[in-house]
Amino acid sequence: MVEIRTYEIPPKEAGTRLDQFLVQSSGLSRSVVQRLIHQERVRIGDRPRKASYRVRAHDRLIVAFPPPEPWGIEPEPIPLDILYEDRDLLVVNKPPGLVVHPGAGRQGGTLVNALLHHCPGLTTIGGVERPGIVHRLDKETSGCLVVAKTGEAYQVLTQQFQARQVQKTYLAIVHGSVLTGPRRITLPIGRRARERKRMGVRTHKGRETETIFRVLRSTPGCSLVEVIPTTGRTHQIRVHGAAIGHPVVGDKLYGGRRERRSRWKVPRQLLHAWKLAFAHPRTGERVDNTACLPRDFQEFLDHMDLHPSQGL
């Protein structure tokens, strides 16, 4: 059975390459997007388009997915911390260190392996490489992640992320004493030309971003901040924190000199997807989720006396 998804280009995304837009908006990998375009399964109106096509405001993209092929992802009985579940979706509190989906060099021990054990029907939702996965969290980032259990839920949730209708709130421990009051960061983010695995703000093809930092508790050495990314670029919070001189504690990729000279030797970046709110894809009712802090994050707060006066 062929699955059809449609996307309308918001004016702010006009001029973006077709393949880049789909990667950012659909949750699909670059290789899957390229394959769909090559097979002429991505059309605007009744015409297939090339990957280099620059989308226009209000273009209506139609993507036709072929029937899923078995990919050999094995279900595994990995425990899940489920925050919410019904027949359409579930929200999990992903622990730090758990990779979201299989990829090159890793076929097991991922969140997808655990989800397929919990929900066998996910094999047909959203493609064989990332079944059910609407959005992603870095391996070391913990917290709320929503998973679609039906094709309809997948498309509606994907469109909500694309339209920036999903409310995401993170907690981060960053280096340095951050100034009080909210701070809005809009530095454009793009992939670095010589280091393709790294993102940066000093690139020629940076995309529009917005991140709001609000200090909850600050000490001379580090601060606990609430972070709201209204856009969803790769590594956005980590890149913006580093760009303003306050990288996330434990971030080996973007921490730079602050992290290398740090007296805190934590094994991962202290970033937590704390809250996630969205409209239910079937009923339209608001679904609010809050993920409790993982032990290492909590212990760091205790050690540094970073608990805010109003609590978390």
Question: Can you walk through the features of this model?
Answer:
- 36% of the residues are buried.
- The mean pLDDT is 89.
- The protein contains seven helices and 15 strands.
- A hairpin with a 2-residue loop joins β2 (42-44) and β3 (47-48).
- α1 (18-26) crosses α2.
- The protein has three domains: 3-65, Structural Genomics Hypothetical 15.5 Kd Protein In mrcA-pckA Intergenic Region, Chain A (Roll); 82-163, 2-Layer Sandwich (Pseudouridine synthase), CATH 3.30.2350; 168-272 and 298-304, Pseudouridine synthase (2-Layer Sandwich), CATH 3.30.2350.
- The longest helix is centred in the middle third of the chain and has 12 residues, at 151-162.
- It is globular.
- It has 312 residues and is an alpha+beta fold.
**The CATH superfamily title of the largest domain:** Pseudouridine synthase
Report the top-level CATH class of the largest domain: Alpha Beta
Distance between the termini: 46 Å
Number of extended strands: 15
Question: Number of helix segments?
Answer: 7
| Proportion of residues in β-strands | 25-35%
Radius of gyration from CA coordinates: 20 Å
